[in-house]
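Dear colleagues,

As part of the handover before I leave the project, I'm documenting each prediction I ran so the next person doesn't have to rerun anything. This entry is a single chain, and its sequence is reproduced below.
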Amino acid sequence: MSSARAQLLLLLAVLSLANCTPAWQPDSFPDPGKDLKACGRQDIRTGVSRVCDPDEVLSAKSRDTLEGIIQDIETGREPYELMDCRAKGKTGYKVSCTTCFSTTHSVWPTNPKSC
């Protein structure tokens, strides 16, 4: 079997699996602050994560890389900057990332908080 054909078959298998995965809803999607295992982050050393990947769309290495980028944003590490919150001084942006195969909503409710 040719390499291209094997890759195509693998892609089709993954896509068919994705179509069998039930769609997530905002009220049932796991919270990485409360359930690391459900978010695919049970191996994280700090016990805190801003990444939730319950369908394991990303590899463990990709999730860890993403977690590192989010931490850099929150701490204002180059090339990112902290925001000026006047009374509170400079503080980092709060960032989270979720990945899954399917959701029931195209736009999820958010609760953005400023300084």
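The helical segments are 3-20, 60-75. The longest helix spans residues 3-20.

All the best with the project,
I.
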